[in-house]
Amino acid sequence: KKAYVVNDELAENIRNKMKTKNKRFFNVMGSIGSGKTLILERIAERLSPYYKVFVINGDVATTIDADRIAKCGATTVQINTGGGCHLTASLMQKEFDKINIDDYDIFFTENVGNLICPAAWDVGAAKNIVVVSITEGEYVIKKHPIIFKGAQIAVINKCDIEGEDFDSKTLVEDASKIKSDMEVICTSAKTKQGIDDLITALGIDIPKRE
Amino acid sequence: KKAYVVNDELAENIRNKMKTKNKRFFNVMGSIGSGKTLILERIAERLSPYYKVFVINGDVATTIDADRIAKCGATTVQINTGGGCHLTASLMQKEFDKINIDDYDIFFTENVGNLICPAAWDVGAAKNIVVVSITEGEYVIKKHPIIFKGAQIAVINKCDIEGEDFDSKTLVEDASKIKSDMEVICTSAKTKQGIDDLITALGIDIPKRE
Ligand SMILES: Nc1nc2c(ncn2[C@@H]2O[C@H](COP(=O)(O)OP(=O)(O)OP(=O)(O)O)[C@@H](O)[C@H]2O)c(=O)[nH]1
Ligand SMILES: Nc1nc2c(ncn2[C@@H]2O[C@H](COP(=O)(O)OP(=O)(O)OP(=O)(O)O)[C@@H](O)[C@H]2O)c(=O)[nH]1
Ligand SMILES: [Mg+2]
Ligand SMILES: [Mg+2]
Ligand SMILES: [Zn+2]
Ligand SMILES: [Zn+2]
After folding, report:
1. How far, in Å, CA of B118 to CA of B85, rounded?
2. How far apart are CA A29 and CA A113, in angstroms?
3. Distances (CA, A) of A129 to A53, A126, A150, B71, B150
4. Do A135 and B33 touch (CB under 8 A)?
């Protein structure tokens, strides 16, 4: 129990600090390969002309994801957990201690690809976003209720390949059933469908696309 | 440390018992929605005319997977972990204690969808199989080396949708690099491509398809 208590206290600190400084911090969780990074690439492209974006990537190994997002205008840092299956508030704090928070406007963390363990570890974000993709099948939300209960936004990605094998309908219904105030957004990080809707749901203002 | 030691001793017990009784027990791990269940449905359909197959399904919630496989001729049981992110040897032993091992020939467990935690928990199987799908992107194996190091067979699934967005080439290369004796099999649980190859890699004899 002790580890969770310590973690949650630190998470609350982070949340308060970000609020006082009028910064926004979001935790992007989701299944392996659901499109978390490509979505963050699209968000970074869209926001970078107007805001300074900082992204903390979490993965067992490699810096592939941080490098991808860095090419889209955000400042990134990669945490390699070595085997750890989720990020924690203290891992966030360690990264925040290395930078000047005032140099940035919007902060994201891409959590480790896993729909179970990250649900139990509050990282101090203002909102939790959970990304799944239609290619994982129609039951993925029904089977992982806990992580969705702790989320404010459910993203259903890869909607560009909707068709004979895969569809979003059941996933949208299941996400909406989890909690009445859940924002459910269908996206395609490939075609950029839904990316502006997601940015709006995060409460970030940007000029409309041309 | 203690929990792992106890688990590994029990796993060794299970492995020895299965060997003495000349039964085969396989642990199917993999990413969420990679196709573990559909692959087991195909295997159950293919083996059930010749062998008695028993499948232990592990998921956070629901009995969806056990019910699907039961329709294909296997006897199944569903473990709901409630929030646990991996199966263990003691969870296997509990299920084996409820049945007569001699009533079956081949045993499978479908582990919880997760490429991290199950790597650390030996369940007593003769072989570990890890399933990923091409829709998760080309880096999924590079990013999760640990679970593949402990596997004998890497399955790359959903190869029927190979094309512009997704392909298997990098995944096959990465799986082969992890260890020289890794069996790498490309499958489509939808079209049944590669299912017989997988059954052969498990060391199970079946008559050729008509
Ligand atoms: N067709 C299609 N492909 C997508 C979409 N989003 C992501 N992909 C592809 O899906 C694969 C995985 O995307 P990533 O962005 O790496 O996914 P991720 O969730 O960050 O993956 P991990 O960090 O490894 O868990 C890549 O091949 C992407 O090109 C989408 O909306 N449509
Ligand atoms: N096109 C195609 N779809 C597949 C294939 N294998 C599985 N699917 C689909 O992928 C989705 C997930 O398949 P499942 O068999 O439930 O995957 P799983 O790995 O057991 O999922 P979890 O147990 O929830 O982690 C379903 O919609 C399947 O129909 C395949 O080879 N090709
Ligand atoms: Mg990623
Ligand atoms: Mg399954
Ligand atoms: Zn974990
Ligand atoms: Zn775990």
Report:
1. 7
2. 7
3. 17, 10, 9, 36, 32
4. yes
pLDDT at position A1: 64
Ligand with an atom nearest the CA of residue B67: 4
The residues with which A153 forms a beta bridge, in sequence order, are A129, A183
For chain A, percent of residues with pLDDT exceeding 70: 100
Nearest to A142 among B62, B117, B158 (CB): B62
Alpha-carbon distance of B114 to B34, in angstroms, equals 10
Domain B2-201 fold: Rossmann fold (3.40.50)
Residues forming a β-bridge with A184: A154
Write the pLDDT tens digit of every residue in B9-45. 999 999 999 999 999 999 999 999 999 999 999 999 9
**pLDDT by residue (tens digit) across A54-64?**
999 999 999 99
Mean pLDDT of chain A: 97
- Exposure on the CB side of residue A141, measured as CA atoms within 13 A: 30
Structure tokens at A26: 């979001």
Task: Report pLDDT digits (tens) over A131-169.
Answer: 999 999 999 999 999 999 999 999 999 999 999 999 999
Domain ranges of chain B: 2-201
Rg (CA), chain A: 16
CA–CA gap between residue B4 and residue A83 (Å, rounded): 15
If you average pLDDT over residues A67-83, what whole number do you get? 97
Chain B residues touching residue A140 (CB < 8 angstroms): 32-33
Q: Are B83 and B101 in contact (CB under 8 A)?
A: no
Which DSSP string corresponds to B97-125?
HTS-GGG-SEEEEE--SBSSGGGG-----
CA distance A177 to A148: 10
Distance between CA atoms of B51 and A102, rounded to whole angstroms?
66
Across the interface, whether the CB atoms of A142 and B33 are under 8 A apart is answered: no
CA distances from A36 to A66, A104, B96, B103, B159 (A): 12, 21, 39, 45, 22
Whether residue B25 contacts residue B93, with contact meaning beta carbons closer than 8 Å, is answered with no
pLDDT digits (tens, 9 = 90+) for A108-129: 999 999 999 999 999 999 999 9
- The gap between the terminal CA atoms of chain A, to the nearest Å, is 51
Q: Are B39 and B28 a contacting pair, CB within 8 Å? A: yes
